[in-house]
Design a protein that fits this description.
458 residues, alpha/beta, 7-stranded mixed β-sheet, 14 helices, FAD/NAD-bd_sf
Length: 458
Amino acid sequence: MIWLESAIAIPEDPSAFDTSQSQDHNVIMRDVCIIGGGSAGTFAAIRLRQMNQSVVVVEREDHLGGHVNTYNDMTTGTAIDYGVLYYEDLPLVRDYFGYFGIPLERVSAQKQTANSRRVDLRTGTSVGPVEGNMALALAVYTTQLLRYPYLNTGFNLPNPVPPDLLLPFGEFVKKYKLDGAVDIIALFNQGVGDLLQQTTLYMMKYFGLDVLQGALTEFLQPVSHNNSELYVAAQDELGKDALLSSAIISTRREEEGKWVKVRVSTPSGEKLIRARRLIVAIPPKLDMLQGIDLDPIERGLFEQFNNTCYYTALVKIPGLPQGLQVVNRANDTAYNLPPLPAVYVLNPTRSPNLTTILYGSKEHMSENEIKEHMTQSVLSLRNQGLPVEAPEFVRYSDHSPFLLTVPPEAIANGFYRNLNGLQGNRNTYWMSATFNAHDSAQIWLFADRLLRSISQSE
């Protein structure tokens, strides 16, 4: 099993890290080696180059971008994003896109989904409108967010951790009478598992002040409506410093050493990277950290993480009216939230022939299981009088592991204080959604702050 393999420390042959035994073209010397070319890793690479640092990025996929998924519809000549869609309107976001000359536009998520139906996709029956006063509930929710300014970037929690942050979110909602806000929070906090049972801390991090502002006003997106444009531009700038389709074989991070050494398998053969610092920009789950020489403290922290699962698909659905959004809701649950695993929503796209399907589960599911359940959910719309046929899958993406969490007891006992204490240990820094929020703009804010602190400490 993968988790067992990663838990067993296999002694490393010291000669494997001996640069004197390697040919010059197989040794890469950089200031920083970055593992992972998703949102965090790509941003860190570009930001470090702006700070006159040399970098190399190791990415297992054949492109940069992480959760960004884009399909180019040859029929209409339209780029369709079915992963990351929007960004909060923040100076850092504008600066990042502006660096590559990518123009942005403001867009209202609410206006784009004006034609919407609430349907129980288990049965195809209609679900009534949202109950409660959303505006009033969001005002109260905003007041609660303002009580915890330290949630804006990172998990810099006080000791003791406020008890409200450790409540199941459903209890937090009842305590502060936030019923009218649950539906919109559920629309934006997709992929979090059972929203009402999830710890309030994570829900407030995910649906924070910046996201709330965007939900009520407007978000940003590229004028091209192609979020991959950013990562193509970054990949072009990095050039050979982006080692794509590559995997970590092993690392050596000596306690008092000045260098981190990383052995990498690449399409052109094995490489040895020597860097002054290592940035790990992938989810810190043990099965994803294979090859990294974790110490007992790191392993003890990372093994506590649980995760949710999230999936997206781009499909053709014959018979589905153009421009129709279908929000999956239930007739027999609290706040009409659908029991997982379930489709979250069917979203129309800029192409009249294509629809995105967003899906979540608590435990990981196979692609066949998910596609079968998506198909059943779509066919239930026949009970709405819609002459739909089974979806034709054009693209599919598994974004698991998604939200990484630990139990409230661990949070109260200082888990995040200990996690933050890893930064800089053995010349290694950690940055990913797990260290802030599953949101590109928030990931960039965290990475920028961490990189600035590193630079100031040198």
